[in-house]
Amino acid sequence: MTTARLPLFPLNSVLFPGLVLPLNVFEQRYRALMRDLSALPEEEPRRFGVVAIRDGSEVAPTAPGLPEGARPEPGPASGFGPDPLKAFHTVGCVAEAATIRERTGGTYEVLATGTTRFRLLSVDASGPYLTGEVEDIAEEQGEGAGALASGVVRAFRAYQKRLAGATERTLAGQTDLPGEPSVLSYLVAAAAMLDVPAKQRLLETPDTATRLARELKILRAETAVIGKLPSLPATDLIRQPTNPN
Questions:
Q1: Residue 225 above 60 pLDDT?
Q2: Which of 59, 95, 150, 230 is within CB 3.0–4.6 Å of 112 for a Cys-Cys bond?
Protein backbone atom coordinates (compact mmCIF):
# COMPACT_ATOMS: atom_id res chain seq x y z
CA MET A 1 0.00 0.00 0.00
CA THR A 2 1.31 3.46 -0.90
CA THR A 3 2.11 5.95 1.82
CA ALA A 4 1.97 9.74 2.01
CA ARG A 5 3.16 12.49 4.34
CA LEU A 6 0.63 14.62 6.17
CA PRO A 7 0.86 17.48 8.68
CA LEU A 8 -0.50 16.24 12.03
CA PHE A 9 -2.99 17.93 14.32
CA PRO A 10 -3.31 15.91 17.57
CA LEU A 11 -6.51 16.38 19.56
CA ASN A 12 -8.12 15.08 22.74
CA SER A 13 -11.01 13.89 20.58
CA VAL A 14 -11.68 11.57 17.65
CA LEU A 15 -12.56 12.81 14.16
CA PHE A 16 -14.66 10.57 11.91
CA PRO A 17 -15.04 10.69 8.11
CA GLY A 18 -17.90 12.98 7.08
CA LEU A 19 -17.95 14.92 10.36
CA VAL A 20 -17.28 18.65 10.64
CA LEU A 21 -14.34 19.84 12.75
CA PRO A 22 -14.25 23.50 13.91
CA LEU A 23 -10.87 24.59 15.28
CA ASN A 24 -9.66 27.64 17.19
CA VAL A 25 -5.93 27.69 16.38
CA PHE A 26 -3.66 29.75 18.63
CA GLU A 27 -0.43 27.76 19.22
CA GLN A 28 2.58 28.76 17.12
CA ARG A 29 3.11 25.28 15.71
CA TYR A 30 -0.46 25.08 14.42
CA ARG A 31 -0.44 28.68 13.23
CA ALA A 32 2.55 27.70 11.08
CA LEU A 33 0.56 24.76 9.74
CA MET A 34 -2.41 26.96 8.85
CA ARG A 35 -0.14 29.51 7.16
CA ASP A 36 1.34 26.74 5.00
CA LEU A 37 -2.08 25.33 4.15
CA SER A 38 -3.39 28.80 3.29
CA ALA A 39 -0.45 29.34 0.93
CA LEU A 40 -1.34 26.29 -1.18
CA PRO A 41 -2.78 26.91 -4.66
CA GLU A 42 -6.57 27.15 -4.76
CA GLU A 43 -6.93 23.85 -6.62
CA GLU A 44 -4.96 21.88 -4.02
CA PRO A 45 -6.80 20.38 -1.03
CA ARG A 46 -5.80 21.75 2.37
CA ARG A 47 -5.35 18.40 4.11
CA PHE A 48 -3.97 17.46 7.51
CA GLY A 49 -4.18 14.41 9.72
CA VAL A 50 -6.12 14.38 12.99
CA VAL A 51 -4.97 11.83 15.55
CA ALA A 52 -6.40 11.30 19.03
CA ILE A 53 -3.92 11.75 21.86
CA ARG A 54 -3.28 8.58 23.86
CA ASP A 55 -0.83 10.06 26.37
CA GLY A 56 0.03 13.75 26.37
CA SER A 57 -1.35 17.27 26.35
CA GLU A 58 -3.30 18.88 23.53
CA VAL A 59 -1.87 22.30 24.40
CA ALA A 60 1.88 22.69 24.95
CA PRO A 61 2.96 23.24 28.59
CA THR A 62 3.77 26.87 29.39
CA ALA A 63 5.64 26.41 32.69
CA PRO A 64 3.56 28.91 34.68
CA GLY A 65 5.46 30.76 37.39
CA LEU A 66 8.76 30.93 35.54
CA PRO A 67 10.06 34.28 34.29
CA GLU A 68 9.20 34.95 30.66
CA GLY A 69 12.78 34.42 29.46
CA ALA A 70 13.15 31.14 31.34
CA ARG A 71 10.06 29.45 29.96
CA PRO A 72 10.70 26.51 27.62
CA GLU A 73 10.17 27.23 23.95
CA PRO A 74 7.29 25.03 22.79
CA GLY A 75 8.40 22.91 19.84
CA PRO A 76 6.40 20.78 17.41
CA ALA A 77 6.37 17.79 19.79
CA SER A 78 5.88 19.74 23.02
CA GLY A 79 3.58 17.87 25.39
CA PHE A 80 3.98 14.52 23.62
CA GLY A 81 7.19 13.15 25.14
CA PRO A 82 10.40 11.99 23.45
CA ASP A 83 8.57 9.68 20.99
CA PRO A 84 5.36 11.33 19.72
CA LEU A 85 4.30 8.18 17.87
CA LYS A 86 3.75 6.47 21.23
CA ALA A 87 1.66 9.42 22.43
CA PHE A 88 -0.94 9.06 19.65
CA HIS A 89 -3.50 6.50 18.62
CA THR A 90 -2.19 5.21 15.31
CA VAL A 91 -5.49 5.25 13.39
CA GLY A 92 -6.59 8.78 12.53
CA CYS A 93 -8.70 10.70 10.05
CA VAL A 94 -7.72 13.01 7.22
CA ALA A 95 -9.27 16.48 7.60
CA GLU A 96 -9.76 18.86 4.69
CA ALA A 97 -10.06 22.54 5.59
CA ALA A 98 -12.93 24.27 3.84
CA THR A 99 -12.16 27.65 5.42
CA ILE A 100 -9.06 29.02 7.13
CA ARG A 101 -9.70 32.51 8.47
CA GLU A 102 -6.90 34.51 10.08
CA ARG A 103 -8.01 36.74 12.94
CA THR A 104 -6.49 39.81 14.52
CA GLY A 105 -3.46 38.73 16.53
CA GLY A 106 -2.50 35.90 14.18
CA THR A 107 -4.82 33.17 15.45
CA TYR A 108 -6.98 31.18 13.05
CA GLU A 109 -10.57 30.06 12.83
CA VAL A 110 -10.74 26.84 10.83
CA LEU A 111 -13.60 24.70 9.58
CA ALA A 112 -12.59 21.27 8.29
CA THR A 113 -14.32 18.00 7.43
CA GLY A 114 -13.13 14.46 8.02
CA THR A 115 -12.63 12.49 4.80
CA THR A 116 -10.83 9.14 5.08
CA ARG A 117 -9.07 7.05 7.71
CA PHE A 118 -5.34 6.47 7.82
CA ARG A 119 -2.80 4.49 9.80
CA LEU A 120 0.09 6.50 11.27
CA LEU A 121 3.42 4.79 10.57
CA SER A 122 5.96 7.35 11.80
CA VAL A 123 6.20 10.90 13.13
CA ASP A 124 8.71 13.58 12.11
CA ALA A 125 9.35 16.45 14.58
CA SER A 126 12.09 18.20 12.59
CA GLY A 127 9.90 20.98 11.18
CA PRO A 128 7.76 23.75 12.70
CA TYR A 129 4.92 21.26 13.25
CA LEU A 130 4.62 17.48 13.36
CA THR A 131 4.24 15.51 10.15
CA GLY A 132 3.54 11.83 9.76
CA GLU A 133 3.99 9.07 7.23
CA VAL A 134 0.54 7.56 6.76
CA GLU A 135 -1.20 4.90 4.72
CA ASP A 136 -4.88 5.02 3.77
CA ILE A 137 -7.32 2.56 5.30
CA ALA A 138 -10.01 1.47 2.85
CA GLU A 139 -13.59 1.31 4.14
CA GLU A 140 -14.97 -2.18 3.58
CA GLN A 141 -18.72 -2.77 3.93
CA GLY A 142 -18.57 -6.21 5.49
CA GLU A 143 -21.39 -8.73 5.55
CA GLY A 144 -24.90 -7.58 6.43
CA ALA A 145 -24.16 -3.87 6.72
CA GLY A 146 -27.53 -2.87 5.26
CA ALA A 147 -29.59 -4.92 7.73
CA LEU A 148 -27.45 -3.77 10.64
CA ALA A 149 -27.89 -0.14 9.58
CA SER A 150 -31.67 -0.43 9.94
CA GLY A 151 -31.25 -1.80 13.44
CA VAL A 152 -28.81 0.96 14.39
CA VAL A 153 -31.24 3.65 13.17
CA ARG A 154 -33.97 2.26 15.42
CA ALA A 155 -31.58 1.84 18.37
CA PHE A 156 -30.18 5.35 17.94
CA ARG A 157 -33.66 6.89 17.85
CA ALA A 158 -34.53 5.04 21.06
CA TYR A 159 -31.25 6.23 22.59
CA GLN A 160 -32.02 9.85 21.60
CA LYS A 161 -35.52 9.67 23.05
CA ARG A 162 -34.33 8.15 26.30
CA LEU A 163 -31.53 10.72 26.57
CA ALA A 164 -33.89 13.58 25.75
CA GLY A 165 -36.21 12.37 28.50
CA ALA A 166 -33.37 12.18 30.98
CA THR A 167 -32.31 15.75 30.17
CA GLU A 168 -35.87 17.09 29.79
CA ARG A 169 -35.19 18.08 26.19
CA THR A 170 -37.29 17.60 23.06
CA LEU A 171 -36.39 16.07 19.72
CA ALA A 172 -38.07 18.82 17.67
CA GLY A 173 -36.23 19.65 14.47
CA GLN A 174 -34.35 16.37 14.50
CA THR A 175 -32.53 15.68 11.24
CA ASP A 176 -32.93 12.46 9.29
CA LEU A 177 -30.20 9.87 9.65
CA PRO A 178 -28.28 8.90 6.49
CA GLY A 179 -29.21 5.64 4.80
CA GLU A 180 -25.73 4.75 3.58
CA PRO A 181 -24.33 2.28 6.15
CA SER A 182 -20.77 3.63 6.43
CA VAL A 183 -21.92 7.26 6.70
CA LEU A 184 -24.47 6.22 9.34
CA SER A 185 -21.85 4.28 11.29
CA TYR A 186 -19.55 7.31 11.54
CA LEU A 187 -22.34 9.73 12.44
CA VAL A 188 -23.56 7.49 15.26
CA ALA A 189 -19.99 6.96 16.49
CA ALA A 190 -19.47 10.72 16.66
CA ALA A 191 -22.85 11.54 18.20
CA ALA A 192 -23.02 8.91 20.95
CA MET A 193 -21.94 9.92 24.45
CA LEU A 194 -18.75 7.87 24.60
CA ASP A 195 -15.25 8.55 25.88
CA VAL A 196 -12.25 8.91 23.57
CA PRO A 197 -11.03 5.27 23.88
CA ALA A 198 -14.50 3.97 22.96
CA LYS A 199 -14.77 6.30 19.98
CA GLN A 200 -11.25 5.38 18.91
CA ARG A 201 -12.17 1.69 18.93
CA LEU A 202 -15.08 2.47 16.61
CA LEU A 203 -12.80 4.44 14.28
CA GLU A 204 -10.39 1.49 14.16
CA THR A 205 -13.10 -1.09 13.43
CA PRO A 206 -12.07 -2.95 10.25
CA ASP A 207 -15.36 -2.69 8.34
CA THR A 208 -18.75 -0.99 8.38
CA ALA A 209 -20.75 -4.06 9.38
CA THR A 210 -18.56 -4.73 12.41
CA ARG A 211 -18.77 -1.06 13.44
CA LEU A 212 -22.57 -1.08 13.16
CA ALA A 213 -22.81 -4.32 15.15
CA ARG A 214 -20.70 -2.80 17.93
CA GLU A 215 -22.78 0.38 17.88
CA LEU A 216 -25.99 -1.60 18.11
CA LYS A 217 -24.71 -3.31 21.23
CA ILE A 218 -23.46 -0.03 22.72
CA LEU A 219 -26.68 1.87 22.00
CA ARG A 220 -28.88 -0.79 23.55
CA ALA A 221 -26.68 -0.95 26.65
CA GLU A 222 -26.50 2.85 27.01
CA THR A 223 -30.27 3.23 26.50
CA ALA A 224 -30.90 0.72 29.29
CA VAL A 225 -28.47 2.53 31.61
CA ILE A 226 -29.98 5.97 30.91
CA GLY A 227 -33.44 4.61 31.72
CA LYS A 228 -32.24 3.81 35.25
CA LEU A 229 -30.68 7.21 35.92
CA PRO A 230 -32.69 10.07 37.48
CA SER A 231 -31.03 12.77 35.36
CA LEU A 232 -28.12 13.49 33.04
CA PRO A 233 -26.30 16.70 32.08
CA ALA A 234 -27.68 18.32 28.93
CA THR A 235 -25.85 17.10 25.84
CA ASP A 236 -26.30 17.96 22.17
CA LEU A 237 -25.95 14.74 20.21
CA ILE A 238 -25.11 16.27 16.85
CA ARG A 239 -23.33 19.59 17.29
CA GLN A 240 -19.68 19.34 18.23
CA PRO A 241 -17.79 21.95 20.27
CA THR A 242 -14.95 23.95 18.81
CA ASN A 243 -11.60 22.39 19.64
CA PRO A 244 -9.34 24.98 21.30
CA ASN A 245 -5.76 24.46 20.09
A1: yes
A2: 95
